[in-house]
Amino acid sequence: MKHSQKRIFMDIEKMTSDEFKAFCRSGNKNYFIRIRKMPLQDLLFTMINRKGLTLALELRNYMKLAHPGVSISKPGYLKQRIKLNPDAFLELYKYHNRNFYVDSTFSTYKDHLILAADGSDINIPTTAETLKLYGFCKPEKHKAPSSNRIRLYL
Questions:
Q1: What is the distance between the alpha carbons of residues 140 and 27, in angstroms, rounded to a whole number?
Q2: Average pLDDT, consecutive stretches of 10 residues, N- to C-terminus, the chain (154 residues)
Q3: In terms of Cα–Cα distance, which of 84, 66, 69 is closest to 22?
Q4: Which of 95, 96, 54, 109 is nearest to 77 (CA)?
Q5: What predicted TM-score, i.e. pTM, was given to this entire model?
């Protein structure tokens, strides 16, 4: 989709803003102020990008990519996670959707977003009605009607 990379960067910018950090603290001004192995942004990334592995594997794989040579224990991660306001994800969701709908370049069909389309050719029975409605296929010597079918996923 157009501008998706721009929206991702906007989401990351939101995640690093002081206003969002304050929202994530659940009213405790001491949460997420020190520089730790798992700061707020990394905590959010790990929670959003879970792949269904064990927590130890998820943490090891993430830290290998994001902070090579640094490791974090499961209890340390869980301690950080408990501090997080669960409504932070709802706030990110709302922020991302607001930015998505600001961009008016997306396609719609009857005021619904078109998220995917599947197009294929189908053969239609040869009757007078279908020939009148759809006409003939390209090589007119076959004299068979054809139509394109498009399935929209809204």
A1: 74
A2: 76 89 85 82 88 91 91 89 88 86 74 69 69 65 53 50
A3: 84
A4: 54
A5: 0.63
What's the first-to-final CA gap in the chain, in angstroms? 15
CA angle 137, 140, 146 (to 5 degrees): 15
3-state SS string for the chain: CCCHHHHHHHHHHHHHCHHHHHHHCCCCCCCCCCCCCCCHHHHHHHHHCCCCCCHHHHHHHHHHHHCCCCCCCHHHHHHHHHHCCCHHHHHHHHHHHHHHHHCCCCCEECCEECCEEEEEEEECCCCHHHHHHHCCCCCCCCCCCEEEEEEEEC
Count of CB atoms situated within 10 Å of the CB of 67: 13
The DSSP bridge partners found for residue 117 are: 152
